[in-house]
Amino acid sequence: MSRPSSGHDEKGVNQNGDPGGHHSVFTNTRSAAAASSETKLLSAFKTVTQARKVYLGGREYYSEEGKTFELRLVGKIKQQLSADPTFCPEYPSSLGLTEFTRRATEVALGKSSPAIVENRVLGIQTPSFSAAVRLGAELLTHWYKVRAVWCGPVYLSSPCDDSLAGIFQAAGIEDIREYYYWDDKQRGVCLEKLLEDLERAPEQSVVVLSASAHYPTGADLTQKQWTVITQLIMKSTFAVAAFAK
C-alpha cells in the first residue's frame, strides 16, 4: 500500500505502476475537457447530508428505492427476442444491423425519399448518440481535408449536451457556434429566435438538431416547428445532422 505523502511504495513502485521510479509517459497527462455542469451538480448533490434530497440531473429512471429499473417496453422486447427461434445473438458487422439501419433511415427520410429510392443512403448503427456525433464529426473533417469544399461552422443548440462541443473539437473542428433553443420565460423552445440565428448563419454551416429526447431540456420540436425549420434549411446551403437518442 502506498503512502499518501509519497509517490512510491515500499517495493519501489510509484503510483503510476512503473517499477524503478521511472516516470510514465502518461504521468503529466491532463484532461482536455472541463467538468460539465452535470458533473458539478452531482458532486454538489453528494456533499448534501440531508436525507430528503432528490437528484434531478440524471438521465436514468429510478424506483422509489433509488434503484434503476427496466422500462416495460424494454422488457417486452427482451421477451420477444428470447422467444424468437430465428434470433441469433451474433456480433453485427462494423456498420451495425443492416435491417435496423434500413428501417431507421426509412423512418428518418421516408420510404419514398429520392435518396432511398436511388440507393444513395448509408446508415450506420452506433452504441450511443455521442458515438454517432463523433462519426459525423470525423466525416466532416475527412470531407474537408479530401475535397476542401467545406469550411463552415457547426451550430449546436443552446443549451445542449456538454459533450457535443468537445466531440467536434476532438475531431479538429474548432468553429463551434450556438443557436437559440430553450427560452426560460416561455418554458419551451423559442422558434422565433431559433430561426433568427439560423438565418444569420453563413453558407455551408452544419446545424446539429435533436430528433428526440433533447438534452438537457427534454423539449422536442413539434411537427409544425420541424416543417418551418426544414423550409428555412431548404432555402439555405446548410448541412443538417439530426440525432435521436
In short:
The protein is of the alpha/beta class. Among the domains are: 91-125, no CATH class; 129-243, 3-Layer(aba) Sandwich (Aspartate Aminotransferase, domain 2), CATH 3.40.640.10. Helices cover 36% and strands 11% of the residues.
Polypeptide structure, described:
Helix 5 runs parallel beside helix 6 (163-170) and helix 7 (191-200) packs parallel to helix 8 (223-235). The model is unreliable at 1-17 (pLDDT under 50). This protein has a 4-stranded parallel beta sheet, with helices on both faces. A two-stranded antiparallel sheet has the order 3-4. The longest helix has 19 residues, at 129-147. The chain contains 8 helices and 6 strands. It is α/β, with parallel strands linked by helices. The two termini are 43 Å apart. Among the domains are: 91-125, no CATH class; 129-243, Type I PLP-dependent aspartate aminotransferase-like (Major domain) (Aspartate Aminotransferase, domain 2, 3-Layer(aba) Sandwich), CATH 3.40.640.10.
CATH superfamily of the domain at 129-243: Type I PLP-dependent aspartate aminotransferase-like (Major domain)
Number of strands: 6
Radius of gyration: 23 Å
What is the ordering of alpha helices and beta strands? HHHHHEHEEEHEHE
Helix/sheet category: alpha/beta
Mean pLDDT over the full residue set: 80
Strand content: 5-15%
What is the percent of helical residues? 25-40%
Number of helices: 8
Biased composition (Basic and acidic residues): 1-12
Enzyme class: transferase
Protein name: aspartate transaminase
GO cellular component, one term: cytosol
